[in-house]
Amino acid sequence: MRRSLRQLRSQRYKLLLPAYGGVIQRCERTIRDTLLYYDVRIQRIDRGLRHLAALGQEATAFEIWKSLFPEDAPYERMRDQLLLVIGALDCLEDEGKLETVRRSDGVLAHHHV
Fold this sequence. Notes:
Number of domains: 1
Order of helices and strands: HHHHEE
Distance between the termini: 24 Å
Shape: elongated
CATH topology: Arc Repressor Mutant, subunit A
Strand content: 5-15%
Oligomer: single chain
Number of strands: 2
Radius of gyration: 16 Å
CATH superfamily: Winged helix-like DNA-binding domain superfamily/Winged helix DNA-binding domain
């Protein structure tokens, strides 16, 4: 998604018609704000993983989610928030900033490299 948004950013559009949501009329601003939203979250996860790496620890996506979102957040939003964390982990892995290992219990754990 971020790659596609960066490609869109290099063009000038009057309107965007995304697959979901409404018509976007402020294309440049919306693309910029969306990229910033995701980049900030990826940076927060990266910082947290670097901190854990300094302590010699790793974390699961669920543990990262728990550290980022308040406990009183509505349960219905958990799925979307957890998917955001998993997407950020994928981005960091693609950038070579983290490694994912399958623990003996089958759970995926992530650590900063």
